[in-house]
Amino acid sequence: MRGGIVWLTGLSGAGKSTLATAVARELATRRPVELLDGDDIRTFLSAGLSFSRPDRDTNVQRIAYVARLLAKHGVLVFVAAISPYRETRDAVRALSEAAGHPFIEVYVNAPLETVVARDVKGLYKKAHAGEISSFTGVSDPYEPPLHPEVEVRTDMSSQADCVSRIVAIMAAHALVHGL
Ligand code: ADP
């Protein structure tokens, strides 16, 4: 089966890692899957990069490069990364599609109030206290996708519903069969 890239974008704490992990787990018995998680990538592949726009773009381009390499070998690649800039996401989509890999953009959407209330990693508290600068949604921009393949509202839908919608859109793009 051909590879593909499922790119989850959204604010920190929106649910990208949770959903990517859940969908990947559901599909892992059927075909090779890999998850490129923004936090791991910043530790291992992009250590030293800042959160300036050029460095964020470099980070996203590196992730997309690895995703394409994996997709070339039939892997279904999940990317969970804030990837805040529309132009950059569109650029990596174009590169993926030019290489023949389907690219499914998943907008993992929860309002700022929700992700601040969740504050999964305690980062919003630090950002509001001024201890972290250039924090997406607080002191740095987030540009939502205009035409994502699918948008899930994690403040309004259950995790199971969000997972089903992502799997359904993947099936519609022939990335999973027999569900
Ligand atoms: P991100 O990867 O976007 O930074 P995480 O997946 O690390 O976000 O955290 C999202 C948090 O939101 C988790 O604690 C998760 O349990 C919670 N959550 C609540 N509802 C949902 C939902 N419908 N989908 C995904 N996560 C949800």
Task: Give the structure's gist in a few sentences.
The protein is built from seven helices and five strands. The chain has helices at 16-27, 38-44, 53-72, 86-98, 112-118, 123-128, 159-172, and strands spanning 4-9, 33-37, 76-80, 103-109, 150-153. The protein is globular, with a radius of gyration of 16 Å.
Describe it.
- The structure is a single chain.
- The mean pLDDT is 97.
- The protein has helices spanning 16-27, 38-44, 53-72, 86-98, 112-118, 123-128, 159-172; strands at 4-9, 33-37, 76-80, 103-109, 150-153.
- The protein is built from seven helices and five strands, in the order E-H-E-H-H-E-H-E-H-H-E-H.
- It has a five-stranded parallel beta sheet with strand order 2-3-1-4-5, with helices on both faces.
- The chain is α/β, with parallel strands linked by helices and 179 residues long.
- The chain is globular, with a radius of gyration of 16 Å.
- The protein binds adenosine-5'-diphosphate.
Task: Give the C-alpha Rg.
Answer: 16 Å
Mean pLDDT: 97
Structural class: alpha/beta
Taken in chain order, the helices and strands follow as: EHEHHEHEHHEH
Bound molecules: adenosine-5'-diphosphate
Total of DSSP H or I helical runs spanning 4+ residues: 7
Terminal CA distance: 15 Å
Task: Work out the number of β strands.
Answer: 5
Low-confidence stretches: none
Helix content: 40-55%
The largest pleated sheet is described as: 5 strands, parallel
Strand order of the largest sheet: 2-3-1-4-5
Percent of residues in beta strands? 15-25%
What is the general shape? Answer: globular
